[in-house]
């Protein structure tokens, strides 16, 4: 076999093996990297390192994009495009610290508290995006829609399966909890949800209602206190004041 035919056979075998071992980024860029290696007189070790780093980066990007898609975010929002100069009161340093995701390592919660339109949802989505970038799974859910879904799961005998699926999510974001009005069944479901994640997985909640008014969400002050006891233990409460971004044409 001449050199050309031998090289063609080797290339075909390399392509087969890259597909077999599911290395798409090396597969798609192999010829280009080989050419660069030749031009730069790259050593074997450096060449192998470059191939592996390429595959690592590709896998990271695919996982990040898949996590973002599966999270169900309400739009694409980042910390970097949040206007910290607009709300009357917000601790930017605290937000930047939370964006390091240390709170998730410690299984802590975050509650964004403030009137409508001050950026609570934007910040919660932004932190969820950061989590996806770190290859963590996220679920973003409107509070009313989430509770309706879980209530339907009870009727269908599927609540256990729903809870199991949610328990696997690294970060659960429940948006606009202040607009909920629980009955006894939904109250019980919500308490189970909070208890399931307590000191195990992180939770972000946004609300326009101060905690002293959470009895308006639940059936009694006792029920509200039981939820708040677990939600606020190991929690960061971020209070935001100011006018609405929407009313003032900021978004």
From TrEMBL:
Key words of the record: ATP-binding, Nucleotide-binding
Membrane-spanning intervals of the chain: none
Question: Do you know which Gene3D superfamilies this protein is assigned to?
Answer: P-loop containing nucleotide triphosphate hydrolases (3.40.50.300)
Q: Sorted alphabetically, which InterPro entries does this protein's record hold?
A: AAA+_ATPase (IPR003593), DNAC/IstB-like (IPR028350), IstB (IPR047661), IstB_ATP-bd (IPR002611), P-loop_NTPase (IPR027417)
Residues of the AAA+ ATPase domain: 106-239
| Similarity remark | Belongs to the IS21/IS1162 putative ATP-binding protein family.
Q: What is this protein called?
A: DNA replication protein DnaC
């Amino acid at each position: 076999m001449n050199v050309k035919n031998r090289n063609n056979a080797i290339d075909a075998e390399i392509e087969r093996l890259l597909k077999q071992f599911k290395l798409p980024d090396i597969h798609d860029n192999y010829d280009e990297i080989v050419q660069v290696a030749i031009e730069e007189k790259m050593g074997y070790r450096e060449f192998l390192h470059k191939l592996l780093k390429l595959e690592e980066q590709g896998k990271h990007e695919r996982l990040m994009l898949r996590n973002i898609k599966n999270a169900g975010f309400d739009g694409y929002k980042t910390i970097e495009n949040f206007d910290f100069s607009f709300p009357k009161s917000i601790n930017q340093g605290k937000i930047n610290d939370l964006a390091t995701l240390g709170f998730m390592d410690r299984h802590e919660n975050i509650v964004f508290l403030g009137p409508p339109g001050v950026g609570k949802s934007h910040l919660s989505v932004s932190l969820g995006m950061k989590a996806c970038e770190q290859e963590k799974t996220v679920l973003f859910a409107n509070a009313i829609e989430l509770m309706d879904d879980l209530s339907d799961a009870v009727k269908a005998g599927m609540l256990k399966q729903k809870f199991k699926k949610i328990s696997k999510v690294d970060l659960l974001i429940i948006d606009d909890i202040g607009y909920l009005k629980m009955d006894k069944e939904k109250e019980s479901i919500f308490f189970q949800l909070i208890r399931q994640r307590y000191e195990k997985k992180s939770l972000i909640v946004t609300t326009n209602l101060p905690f002293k008014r959470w009895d308006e969400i639940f059936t009694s002050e006792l029920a509200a206190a039981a939820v708040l006891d677990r939600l606020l233990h190991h929690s960061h409460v971020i209070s935001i004041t100011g006018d609405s971004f929407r009313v003032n044409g900021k978004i």
